[in-house]
Amino acid sequence: MKAANGMLRLIDVRKSYRIGPSTREVLQGIRLDVNAGDLVSIMGPSGSGKTTLMNIIGLLDRPTSGACLLNGRDVARLTDDELSTLRNEHIGFVFQSFQLLPQLTALENVCLPLVYRGVARAQLRTRALPLLARVGMADWAGHRPSQLSGGQKQRVAIARALAGEPTLLLADEPTGALDSDTALEVMTLLLRLNAEQGVTILIITHDPLVARQCARQVRIRDGNLHEVGAGAAGVIAPRPTRPDPEVMRAPGARPQP
User: Fold this and answer.
1) Measured between alpha carbons, how far is residue 72 from residues 4, 5, 171, 185, 242 in Å?
2) Quick one: angle between helices 106-116 and 121-134, nearest 10?
3) Rounded to whole angstroms, how far apart are CA atoms 163 and 7?
4) pTM for the complete prediction?
5) What CATH number should be reported for the domain holding residue 123?
6) Domain count along the chain
7) What is the CA angle 155-158-162, rounded to 5?
8) Residues of the domain holding 55
9) Residues 72-114 pLDDT 10s
10) What is the pLDDT of residues 8-43, one digit of tens each?
11) Which of the two residues, 47 and 139, has the higher pLDDT score?
12) Sheet holding 22-34: strands in order across?
């Protein structure tokens, strides 16, 4: 599950969007290092750029300029098919709305990433059941999402995200749809996965109570990151005053016209 240190690195990442005749810069020179085993929260208000940042980290979008390296690979050099493969192999997603398929059981939902990876049908149950047990949901393997509580759905979603043994677990508002007690249970599970099993987790949240439980706490505002948690292992800074040499060597590292 663990990767070498420096598994995720963002160097002067910028993202701009065209709005009519003008250009809006959403991310303004983001710098972030995430090491294997880190537990990082990124917190910011609506419109701060955290969703845009999550999409870039999750390889769902590309930066306008700058470099995004995952396990040493510069994703700017990859085709869309290569990005899809890298995302499937290295990133597990947990969403606020769970995104479980309603017609499938908990076990079948966890099996889905394994199916996409070409795991033989005879091995699916053997691979998926331990994952449900890992999140305390083995006894609900045959239940459909409509038969589960919000917290149980999120546990199944976490098991599904772990199915591919990802390098990085990317959780987007994982407690946003839950009541406070259930949110605490889900956060306790994520903390245990990080502390006991070394799962690297990055949580996007607007909730300071969630953010404070992470060893590293990052805030995003007006397109810039600032690390506020003690014992920061990575380097995060606002827009640099001059270009980073590594970015100048990265393909496509030029401002959007």
Assistant:
1) 9, 10, 22, 34, 23
2) 120
3) 19
4) 0.79
5) 3.40.50.300
6) 1
7) 140
8) 8-249
9) 888 878 899 999 888 888 899 999 889 999 999 999 999 998 9
10) 999 999 999 888 888 888 898 899 999 999 999 999
11) 139
12) 22-34, 8-19, 65-70, 73-74
